[in-house]
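ARCHIVE ENTRY
Sequence with per-residue tokens
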Amino acid sequence: MLYITQLIYIKPGQEVIFHQFEDVAIPLIAKYNGTLMLRVRPDEQVIIEGNIPIPYEIHLVKFTDERDLENFMKDEERKKFLHLKEQSIESVMLIKGVKL
């Protein structure tokens, strides 16, 4: 299994556009042997310690392998909506890992 954690930072005022992209992208995860395990919107009250900006959302996703992740990223339906991602997301910190 391959685990992906994303810290997603969106542009101010672009929440609706971001959700339009997520409404397309998230259901496609399962098509590529993936599972959205966790989707969180943290705020200052839940942060115990940190030295980075608080992301708008944190996603934890698992895929069977790297190839499934690559196929998800290349999905033609998802590509049609990448303009929404580009319009709404300022940056993403993507962390790949395995379960120990």
